[in-house]
Amino acid sequence: MDAKLKNGDLCMDAYGRIDTIKGADELAQRAMIRLSVKKGAGFLSPELGTDWSPLLRAARDRRNSEALRIAAAALEDLPLRVNSAVCASAAGQLMVNLDLEIYDTVRTMSVNI
Questions:
Q1: Angle ∠(98,95,36) on CA atoms, nearest 5
Q2: Does residue 47 have a pLDDT over 90?
Q3: Helices 63-74 + 23-36 axis angle, to 10
Q4: Closest CA to 111 of 101, 94, 100, 96
Q5: 55-67 burial, b for 16+ CB within 10 Å, e for fewer?
Q6: Which of 41, 43, 72, 93 is deepest in the core (most CB within 10 A)?
Q7: Which residue(s) pair with 5 in the sheet?
Q8: Nearest to 109 by CA among 10, 29, 5, 22
Q9: Whole-structure pTM value
Q10: What percent of the chain has pLDDT over 90?
Q11: Domains identified in the chain and CATH numbers
């Protein structure tokens, strides 16, 4: 069980207590945090996060496979599978769209790089 986050903020229940999540929702939230935080950014847990820099150096025709490799490595100790990674860029911003298989359901998430 974990504290539920929405847009980076803690969610509260109807009684003003911190709302919690579990199961597939908890794993999806953990995955999003790991993929969104730059590796080394947390001074208490510098190992937390993902190093997307190899993706930025990859040739355009290899970006999807590189994104898949990076995401799978970042999430390897979680009980889920990264099914696909597709890179897209708009207005100079690179985004990775991921399909994660969590407990026989597919969750789609996007990470801005």
A1: 75
A2: no
A3: 120
A4: 96
A5: beebeeeebbebb
A6: 72
A7: 10
A8: 29
A9: 0.87
A10: 73
A11: 2-112 (3.10.450.40)
- Coil/strand/helix, residue 96: strand
Q: What local confidence, expressed as pLDDT, does residue 88 receive?
A: 96
Q: What pLDDT sits at residue 90?
A: 84
Q: Please, are residues 40 and 46 in contact by the beta-carbon 8 Å criterion?
A: yes
- Which tokens in the block code for residue 76? 């390897």
What percentage of the chain has pLDDT greater than the value 70? 100
Is residue 101 within 8 Å of residue 83, measured between CB atoms? yes
**CA dist 33 → 62, 85, 91, 92, 95 (Å):** 25, 17, 24, 23, 15
Token representation of residue 24: 């597939």
